[in-house]
Amino acid sequence: MPEPVLDALRGLGISPGRAAGRVHKMAGPPLLPAPVAVADTGVETARAVRGLESAAGELTARAEGAAEPAAREILEAQAMIAADPLLRESVEQRVAAGSDAAHAIDAACAEHREALLAAGGYFAERASDLDDIKNRAVAAVLGLPMPGLPAPGHPFVLAADDLAPADTVNLDPGVVVALVTEKGGPTSHTAILARALGIPAVVACPGVMSIADGTWSSVDGGTGEVRAGIDEQTAAEVERSARAARDRLATATGPGRTADGHPVKLLLNIGSVADIPAGSPAEGVGLFRSEFLFLDRRTAPTHQEQTGAYEAVLRAFPEATVVIRTLDAGTDKPLPFLGLPEELNPALGVRGLRVSRRSPEVLDAQLDALAEAARASGTSPWVMAPMVTTPGEAADFARRARARGLADVGVMVEVPAAALHAHRLLDELDFLSIGTNDLSQYTFASDRQHGELADLLDPWQPALLQLIAQCAEAGRAAGKPVGVCGEAAADPLLATVLVGLGVTSLSMSARSVPAVRDALARHTLDQCREHARLALAAADPGAARAAVREAAAA
Ligand code: PEP
Ligand code: MG
């Protein structure tokens, strides 16, 4: 007899798929309590040393378990720093001078950190490792859970208050079967990475941090439902049926079309050629985020470097559509080499295409490299600019691209002004691609990373769908393609709505393609249009989802 479900939580499902496992929480850094007087320095020194040893031991164990050589090296280096005799000596001296173990570790790590920074070069790069070591050693001393990714030694459901992209990028889908965060929004880059890794994920799920570690739970990354307190047998059943569903989807291939054969191109969102899987399930690339080439750089990549990167992507799909987006800088994608000044409201400042107001040479160099890559590969890439607001900006971008022989020029619709004037933009362009992540952010005046505002950023918001409908209608009238490359395209049920609104292509991470293909194949174009009508008429995202889900089930 299965045990009763103790807790049914609900958040926003942002990476479809079901999974079950034991929940393990990601603990935040420990807070230092007020200093305490030390009664016995011998005992306190032993506590402090044990804290350092357990941090070093933990890091060594993680290094041994790391699948990626690069991750293993980083962890081994961290473990060595934690075991450094100089660090230990510094801690012992501080305890001898009257400090309690936690404060002695905190101060010694701070001193060590400064020394590494002063040494410069490779040593300075290791300085931030000291924070992690300090947090682990202090947590051990205080008897608090180890901060960072849990390592329970078996696959698990990761629960966290929120996750930085750096936490998500290292997740192993073989170990973390699902992730659930208390905060976070549907269009944050963490959500994008979870989808790219194919990990079912739910964000903005209140109460998840109250689930006790080790509790068997199931997660539905489509509906956003989290059931905590299921029994092990039910968990195994969820895993079995999720595997069967994945296998069924993986065997379906071919171009995207509705049940009655209406074609809808299914394309890939990529950051580099490495994101295109062998035997890709998609029909081309709908969004190459070229800024990933420029991230973390002090100088712009050279012409050869850029040409090589674009050519590699173009050669991966020589016969198909490949849409390359020019540099999208600013806010959540800082590009140090541009030397942009700090802004009070960076999301509303000089970002995306606007960067070329200050540095037109960066865009021109990129277009030159792209034109050369097209010649070298004998292909005809589509090129588009991010964050375009007015028809004037679109015309200027089109002129610069066409002057270099790039024939198919478009822009992303990410700003409501662009959606409202989609027909005027199309006078200048060959296609539009709707970036629903930023279009949500700017339509609902809500930072896309802001967990508390996740409901406003829900891509099922009828007002967002209204703007998409307007763009699709402009495309239909002009006889030009209008695609969606924001995260909305990766939601299988919403994909039917977008097609019903008149969208001609959907672009997403490779892992999302099979489920979207399956959803389209199960509905006729008329059914998709009915889904679109229901969603547009709904009062809010919840009602829109419910109405379309009901129609789809019928
Ligand atoms: C978008 O804004 O929807 C988009 C696809 O661009 P990015 O997520 O890279 O900002
Ligand atoms: Mg965007």
Number of helices: 21
**Oligomer category:** single chain
Q: What ligand species are in this complex?
A: phosphoenolpyruvate, magnesium ion
Question: What's the CATH topology name of the largest domain?
Answer: TIM Barrel
Give a short account of the largest sheet: 8 strands, mixed
Which architecture of the largest domain would the CATH scheme give at its second level? Alpha-Beta Barrel
Mean pLDDT: 90
Low-confidence stretches: none
Look at the structure and name the CATH superfamily of the largest domain.
Phosphoenolpyruvate-binding domains
Radius of gyration: 26 Å
Q: What is the CA–CA distance across the termini?
A: 32 Å
Order of strands in the sheet with the most strands? 1-8-7-3-4-5-6-2
CATH class of the largest domain: Alpha Beta
Q: Which structural class do you get from the secondary structure elements? A: alpha/beta
Tell me roughly what share of residues is in helical segments: 40-55%
Q: How would the global form be characterised?
A: globular
**What fraction strand?**
5-15%
Number of structural units classed as domains: 3
How many DSSP E strands? Answer: 16
